[in-house]
Each structure stands twice: as C-alpha cells, then as structure tokens.
Design a protein that fits this description.
The chain is of the alpha+beta class. Helix content is about 40%, strand content about 25%. The termini are far apart.
Length: about 775
C-alpha cells in the first residue's frame, strides 16, 4: 500500500512528538533557531515559539557557568562545518536546572558552505545526578577512609594458616606503624613479620575460626612499628563474598589502642588505689542513680559488712537499703531522699540503722551529685560515717548538763543576763541577789545605765577578759573563763564566768545568759598546793645539798687524814734522835712524805681549781703540745699506778692545749680508774688523733658505769654507786676533767668499753676553741 505525502508528514510529526528529546534546526548564517519540536515545552517549560522569535533565547537560558563553552562549541561546529556533541545545564522555566546532551551536525551546500544546523537535545539530568551522587559518595568514602583515626585495609583470602596478602591500606598506616602504604603493599609478608611473637598463634587461630564460621573478625594484638615501638592494634574485619557466596576478600579497619591501653593501665592503677583508699577508710562509700526509680544503689563499699550485711544486700532499688533504716527515721529519710532527687542539692542527714544482729547505730550520710563536663548529673556519690560514739557522747553531755543545771540552781552562784548587739556585751540587764554577798554590790548597781562590770575586773585581767567577751559576741559562741574581780570591800574574788547566747524561735540572738561561780577557795587551795610543791622541791634540794655536804666532808676528812697521818708518822720517826736509820731507809721515808704531800697538794688544787672554774676566773694557757708524748711521760712518771698493769698507745699528736690542764685531766682519770677497779684489773691509756681533734681515753676492765649514772658522774661531789669505802674520794676529779675539757672547747664522757668495763674519754680540738656560752651537753 502506497502512502501519501500527507500521511508521511503525520507519521513524522507523531514520531517527533513521541520522541523524549527536543528536535531542533537552526540557520547557519544567523545562528537563529528555525524549528524546535513541541517536546521543548514539556522538557524545558518554554514553547517553541520563544526559541524561534527571540534570537538569543537559547544562549540566555544556558547556565551561566556553561554558557561560554556551549556557545563557542555551537559556533565552532558551524564554522568548521562539523558535528558537535556537548553537555551543559539549561535553566528550566520553574527555576530548576536540566542537564542536556546536545548532539548536532552542520549541513552544507554543494560548495561546502554551511546552510543549516540540525540537532537533538536529550535530558540527561537523572544520569548526571546519579554520577554526582556516585562521585560525591566516592569522595566521601575516600575522605572517610583517609580521615578515620584507624587504618582501613583490604586483604585477600589465602589457604592454610597464614592470612592473605594486603590489597589496599589507607594512609593512616604511616601514622600508626611508620610505613608508607607503598612500602607495606610491596612486601607481602610485612604484616606477618611485624606481628608480636606472643600474639601470632592466637591470631592465626582467630583467622582460621572466622573463615570457617563466616563471623566478623575482632582481635586485640601487638605489632612492631618501623621504629621498633610496640603498638597495640584493635582489628575488626568482615568477610566480603562474591555473587556466588564464596569468600572474596577481607575488609577491615585497625585502630592504634596503645594510648588507650596505657590509659586503661593507669586507670586500673588509679582505680586500685582509689578502691584501696575507699575500702580501708572507716566509712561506707556508695554510689546511687540520680533518680531512685532508675536503680537505686549501684555500689556499696565492703565496710557495710561492719553492719552484718553483704554489699549485694544494699544494691538495687532505694527501698532495699531504706528497709535497714530505723523505723522512727525511715519516713524522714525517704522524704529527704525524694527532695534530693528533685533539687539535686547536696544531701546531708543523720539517722539510725538497725544492724543485722539487731543493734542500733547512728550514721551521718552525706552525698553530692557527680556531673559530666556539660553539667548533666550522672550519679550520686556519698559517704556514711559511724557517729554512734559522738551521738552517745552528746546525749551523755546533755544529761550531764541537765544535772549540772539543776545542781547550779541550788548552789549559791550568781546568775546574770547581758544584752547582745550594739549595746552589748558589757551592758547588764539582770543579776541575781547572790551578787551582793559575792561582791558587795546590789543588782541595781550592776544593771545601771553605765556598765559597772568592766570596772570590777582585776586590772591584771581586765584587758584579756574584755577581749574574750568581745570575741564571744562576734562569734556568738559560748565562753567559759576564770578571772579575778574586786569586791566593794577590796577583796579579790575569783569567779568562773560561763555564758551562752540565747536565740528566739526564728534563730535571732536575744541575750547572753550566764553564771558567776565563786572559785576563790579553789584558787587559794591551788595556790597553796603550788607553794607546798615549791617548798617540797626546795626541801629536797636542801636534803640533797646536805647529803652532798656530808659526803664531801666525810671524803675530805678521810683524804686529808690519811696522807696527814702518814706524813706525821714518818716525820716523828725521822725526828727521833735515839733511832739510827740507814740512809736508804731515811731516803725512802722522805720520799713517802713527799708523795703524801703531793697527794694533799693535788686534792687542795682540785678544790681550788673547781672553785676558780665555778667563778669563771680560769683562762687556759694554750701552746702547741705533743699530746701523745705528754700523756706517755705522765703515765711513766705517775706514782698513782704503781704495781698496776697498764698499756699505753700514744702516737705523736700536736694540738693547741694547756699542757698543765691536760696533765690534770690524765691524772684524775688514772686516779679514778685506780680507785674504782680491783688491783689486778688492767688499765689502757690511748691517744687517738682525728681530722679536727684528739681523743684521750682511759679504759679499764672493772665493773663499768651504769647508763643511768653516766651523765651525772661528771657533776661536782658525785660518785658512782660502786665507790669503794676504803677510798671514797672527794668527788671533784671527774668534775675537773669535764670542766678542763670544756675550757678547751671539748667535752668529756664515759661509755661502756668493748669487752666490759668503763671507757672515760676526753675530746680536745687540735685548734683550741674555748666555749663562749654554757658548757655543751654531754652524751
């Protein structure tokens, strides 16, 4: 069947109308559209007539950012007589943007001159939006992967025990392990080689298990960083499968948890310390949810066992621990607890708890809300302290005060009321009649307009008493002081002044209420007791002085009588004319007389030196002296140690000393050793040089000196408990030793000799430093 031209035209129009694109045609010379299909109205919102009537319509509605390129490409296609294929955005009539793909070609005449341009505009907005979304998603995913605090990786699936090769690793690997991604990817064994040896076996087992089960992989293990550090890794991965369900690759992320591990370790240590502190303090610590309906107690420290309960018995709803509160306190505490949860104000209360064995104990409960950085309350933290002893003591105190008040009201004491505030505290409002018998003044005189009380205080007490009254007024606290007052007749009366500030029902201070208690007799008794104590001490000192005097007189008389008797007997013998003595005998008697005379001289010199030292009129004559040679010579020449076993160690030691005083020191120490040891005991004399001083020691293997007597043995007229009766001595030898040592700036002491016995020692400085103050304390 042959179609007519009209039918062909209708078919063409129908085809153009059904085509989801804009068909257009433009004149090559003027670039004006000469035909635009009806689809332009549906797709872009403008009728074809506008495209044809307005020469610049198409260019004006191309998106400004694409206009220059689109027009240039369109004109280049005409100029070059070629086709064009471009994409640009077009402004829809409703303000939206439509992406177009514009495909056109230029038709030329037989001479190749452009005649007409024909083309097709296709709406590609959906494809462009899909591409943009895909690009945006890709960029977001890349940004997410590369900005995550963890390292994202892809790993192949391998058979056997070993994990697969790394296919991709994000740049964070350099921050975590110190490797660049390319360094890690080129070494297939990098992950295995950097794995911490102690974690390798368990990690391979975990991989094998999840590959078998298909579960997600999660593990914590250690790896060696490039610089040798040990890094803790938290690794999570999922197994990606292909369309057939077969394992394809692992996709995972690794996080550096080293710092968290260290923080956890520090937190564990801190928690252990805190727990140790909390669980060793004599109090019950607890935490409780902010709203008691949410769970009540969440933690109770083990000290709750002191009440007979296990911590678990208190955990849970608030009603659980409220059940242990004393029935008389339970409702009050419950109301306080509810109000606390509403207001979130600090909680503080005292109440009783009934222990598991039925005892009643008092506790003080204090809690505060713990908040986060934003101020949101998280939980209550509290502490319960056992105040049973304090409450019992307070109750006993109240009872005692009641008894005392009743007793005072029946005792002859003065009761008074003083004003408080600007007119107080010295203005008196009331005095009981007893004040007249106490001070001789009537209550009216003491409550006049001009306060009389301050002028009645003893002048020596007035300043501090008024200061105490002012301080009590300032602090509004009670005071209890004792002071003296002057009665009308001039008597001094001691009073105990006790006062408290009385408040009204609203808590406002009203007045001071106090009492004066006459304690004059008590004070007199105390003064008498002090005087008697002084007298007792003085009597004891006199008795001690008398004892020392008797001892001294007895010793002096003995020590004087013995050499005098010897001198007298020997002198009488030499005086007899009827007795012819051989020269040797006469010489021996003369020597014995001289020896006893020297003994008397030493004793008299000791007493005189002690007196001069006591009066401070002795000055040392200091010269450089070889102390070792001085001591050795003195021991050799001394007649004090005749027939005694003695050992001398005296190396050469030069020191600035008074040689005569040093001789006296050694003589007295030797005399002391001979006097207090049996004849067969050995004696050692040692001179020991040190960096800054020299020590002279005289030691024996006798009974020694008890520790309690070592300090006092160097006092004048003191002797040890083992002083021999046959040779008591005057008790000044060791005193002189100590005084002579102090005169040189040194000291003397006695200690136990190693091996038994006594070791008397004197330390003298190499360069004398005579004392400028009191004698130094002895060890």
């Amino acid at each position: 069947m042959t179609s007519t031209p009209g039918a062909e035209l209708r078919r063409l129009r129908a085809l153009l109308a059904d085509l989801d694109a804009v068909i257009w045609e433009a004149d090559a010379d003027s670039s004006r559209f000469t035909f635009v299909s009806q689809r332009a109205w549906d797709m872009l919102g403008y009728p074809p007539k506008l495209w044809i009537d307005e020469p610049s319509f198409w260019a004006d509605h191309v998106h400004p950012d694409d206009r220059e390129h689109a027009v240039a490409e369109f004109m280049a296609g005409i100029t070059d007589a070629r086709a064009h294929d471009m994409e640009y955005r077009f402004l829809h009539r409703d303000g939206s943007i439509v992406w177009l793909r514009d495909i056109g070609h230029t038709v030329t005449d037989m001479r190749g001159h452009p005649v007409v341009v024909r083309g097709l505009m296709v709406d590609i907005t959906k494809q462009k939006l899909a591409e943009e979304r895909r690009t945006d998603l890709e960029q977001r995913y890349r940004n997410l992967v590369e900005q995550l605090p963890g390292m994202v990786y892809l790993k192949s699936i391998e058979g056997g025990d070993e994990p697969g090769h790394v296919l991709y690793v994000s740049p964070q690997i350099e921050q975590i392990l110190g490797y660049r991604p390319d360094e890690w990817l080129v070494d297939p064994t990098a992950w295995t080689r950097r794995l911490y040896p102690d974690d390798a076996h368990s990690l391979r087992e975990a991989y094998r298990r999840v590959e078998h089960t298909g579960d997600n992989f999660t593990a914590e293990y250690r790896m060696f960083a490039k610089d040798g550090r040990v890094v803790w890794i938290h690794d999570e991965a999922v197994l990606i499968r292909n369309d057939d369900g077969a394992p394809f690759y692992w996709q995972g992320v690794m996080f550096d948890t080293s710092e968290q591990r260290r923080a956890d370790e520090r937190a564990d240590v801190s928690e252990a310390r805190y727990q140790g502190l909390v669980e060793n303090i004599p109090a019950i610590f607890y935490t409780e949810s902010v709203k008691h309906e949410d769970g009540g107690m969440t933690y109770v420290s083990p000290q709750v066992r002191d009440l007979g309960f296990e911590p678990e018995e208190w955990l849970g709803p608030t009603e659980r621990w409220l059940a242990f509160v004393h029935p008389d306190d339970r409702e009050r505490i419950h109301e306080l607890n509810l109000r606390r949860d509403r207001t979130l104000e600090p909680f503080s209360a005292q109440y009783r708890i009934v222990t598991k064995d039925g005892r009643t104990v008092w506790y003080r409960d204090e809690a505060i809300p713990v908040r986060d950085a934003d101020g949101t309350p998280l939980f209550w933290q509290g502490v319960m302290t056992d105040v049973t002893e304090r409450m019992t003591a307070e109750e006993q105190l109240r009872e005692a005060e009641a008894r005392y008040r009743a007793l005072v009201e029946e005792t002859p004491v003065v009761t008074y009321i003083d004003a408080t505030g600007p007119e107080g505290p010295h203005a008196s409002l009331y005095f009981s009649p007893q004040v007249e018998s106490l001070l001789g003044y009537t209550p009216q005189e003491l409550t006049g307009e001009e306060p009389l009380w301050p002028s009645l205080i003893h002048p020596d007490d007035r300043e501090w008493v008024l200061r105490a009254a002012d301080e009590a007024e300032r602090s509004q606290g009670p005071y209890d002081i004792e002071y003296r007052m002057l009665a009308r007749d001039g008597r001094t009366v001691w009073v105990n002044d006790r006062s408290v500030l009385i408040h009204d029902e609203d808590g406002r201070p009203r007045f001071w209420q106090g009492v004066w208690v006459d304690i004059t007799e008590r004070k007199r008794a105390e003064e008498l007791e002090r005087e008697l104590e002084v007298e007792r001490e003085e009597s004891a000192q006199l008795r001690e002085i008398d004892r020392m005097k008797n001892t001294f007189l007895q010793a002096v008389s003995h020590d004087l009588r013995t050499p005098l008797a010897a001198i007298l007997g020997l002198a009488v013998t030499l005086e007899r004319k009827d007795l012819e003595l051989p020269p040797d005998d006469a010489k021996d008697m003369a020597q014995r007389i001289a020896s006893n005379a020297r003994r008397l001289d030493r004793m008299v010199n000791d007493l005189l030196d002690l007196d001069r030292l006591s009066r401070g009129i002795v000055e040392p004559s200091l010269t450089q002296t070889d102390v070792g040679s001085l001591v050795s010579h003195l021991v050799t020449e001394s007649d004090l140690i005749a027939n005694r076993r003695i050992e001398v160690e005296a190396p050469q030691v030069w020191a600035e000393v008074d040689a005569a005083k040093v001789e006296r020191i050694v003589e007295n120490l030797l005399a002391n050793a001979v006097r207090h040891t049996p004849p067969d005991c050995r004696i050692w004399v040692r001179v020991t040089p040190n960096a800054e001083d020299v020590v002279i020691a005289v030691e024996d293997e006798g009974p020694g000196v008890p520790a309690q007597h070592r300090e006092h043995i160097f006092e004048p007229f003191r002797q040890g408990p083992e002083a021999p009766e046959h040779s008591p001595g005057v008790g000044v030898g060791l005193a002189l030793v100590a005084r002579f040592a102090e005169l040189h700036g040194g000291r003397a002491w006695v200690q136990e000799r190693e091996g038994g016995g006594a070791s008397f020692r004197v330390r003298l400085p190499l360069e004398a430093k005579p004392p400028t103050g009191p004698p130094p304390e002895r060890d």
